Amino acid sequence: MRFLTKRRVVILVVAAVVGFVVGRLALRAVGNLLLGGTLLGGDFL
Amino acid sequence: MTAEDKDARKARRAARRAERKARGTGKFVALTILVFILAAGVGVASKLLAKPDWAKRYSVEWSDAIGTKQTDLPYGDGPANKFDLYLPADASRDHYGLVVYLHPGGFTSGDKSGDAEMLQWLCSKGYVAAGINYTLFSEENPEANVLTQSEEIRDAMPHVVEAARAAGYDVDQMAVAGGSAGGCLALIYGYRDAATSPVPVRMVFEAVGPSSFYPEDWTCYGFDKPENIEAACGLFSTMCGATLTPDMLGTPAWDEATKPASALLWVTDQTVPTVMAYGKYDTMQPYLASVRLDAALTEHGVPHEYFVAEHSGHGLQNDGDVNRAYMEKVEEYLDRYLPVGE
Question: Which residue among B28, B40, B317 sits closest to A37, beta carbon to beta carbon?
Answer without folding.
Answer: B317
